Amino acid sequence: MLRIIDLNALSEARHMTEDQIAEEQKIVEAAKRDARDFAVIYDRYFEQIFNFILRRTDDEALTDDLTSQTFLKALQSLKKYEFRGLPFSAWLYRIASNEVNKHYNKKKRKRVFSLEEERLFEIIETEDGNPELDGQINILISTLNDLPTDVMEVLELRFFEERSFKEISFILNISESGAKMRLYRAIEKLKKYFTVNWKE
Q: Which residue among 67, 97, 123, 196 is least enclosed by CB atoms within 10 Å?
């Protein structure tokens, strides 16, 4: 049997506590006073932002460029950054998302979402020894690729990046209810294919 897990029940383990956010804000304020302190932020978030962009480009050289551009813009705009009760990373994700969107709009190319196989296995629940699993995974990938970009963005941020709806709404500049509705649409489309029992 193969079915989609309830993506609304995802672990919030990666979400920061209020104390962690407050501690992070001290680092941001230090970087505002002295740009050399921005290195702490860069080291902390480089890998997350790089992987986020790589998933959207499937091109390491392009990802290097867009990641560099993201951190450069963050550094240049740091003094304008205003704390809104969210992790600083939400602001970095917003800049990164905008950089990726600008790239694709400029090049007029179809957007890419490169999904790691191990993460796909986290989306689905399956019994061991299912000989049809490879075919089902291919259907899942095809179904995900058919999702509209705005829906896929929310699915990616919620599942792959484990962001709260409040963060997603900030990153994509949409309402929280809009983010939830997009995720609901994605889940419903996936369930259409995967909430059935597959023949052995």
A: 196
